[in-house]
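Lab channel / #folding
Pinned by the channel admin:
"Please post every new chain as: sequence first, then the structure tokens as a reply. Keep commentary short and put observations after the output so the thread stays searchable."

First post following the new format, from NK:
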Amino acid sequence: MDITNFTVDTKTEKIECSLVSPKNPSKNAGILLNISATREYALHDPLQSTPTIPFLEAGHYVLSFDLAHHGSRIKYPDTEGKELKGMALALLDGNDPFEQFINDGKAALDWCKTQNIGVNGRTVAYGVSRGAYCCLRLAASDSRVYAIAGPSPVTTWHPVTEFSSTISQSLDLNKFDIQNWIDSLGEKAVYLSVGSQDNIVSTNACVDFAMKLFKHQKDVLPENILLNELHVVDSPSHSPSIKSRLDATRFLLEHVNPSKTNTQIKDELHKNSK
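Reply from TO:
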């Protein structure tokens, strides 16, 4: 991989980012923001990096950085391996990790712009679970993020044990529900998939958010324009299957490069997964 590492200043801290360049950039090359716990996972883990290779082969750039309180950014003692607890503790201390993510994402995309990277294409974002929530929050705040794919997304923090056990008595977790940003997501393309028995993030919460978003989009978008997809798969697991991850990748490729048909993209992904 052709990886460029760079540092951006988000005013509250300096963060390390990684940008992977395609061998043959498309004329309208876009950017995939691939978010996992760390950029190492997002770019190199066999599952978390599912969209990385298809995007590079299609001529697009892939951007990543560590989530706050993960990887090289752990700040609280004894939270390695318990990074969600670190995020919860930060909220208690008045240091919102989700606002930090928004600042991180904007700074990383600003740097790409200074390098003329992705300026002729679209920016799309991919994240699983907490990564999906963060990508949705960034999209709601930054007009450059056009589409988001979130398998097994956190849509409310109530069912997440690290949050409910750490801060539910001190802070109103309802204020962090992603449905609070529905108005800002009305013109975004959003892909959600969740297992039918996901008790980690709550299947019902994901479906409820998706239906409210669909209703809002019906009100604000032209007639017969549908930007979103919701898939409830028969699974007791929180971890998305490779099929769900590939389908999320297909969705994002459609929106970063709308000139390709759905069938073409599915055929290419099937070939690459063999």
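NK: The longest strand covers residues 2-9.
TO: also worth noting, The mean pLDDT is 90.
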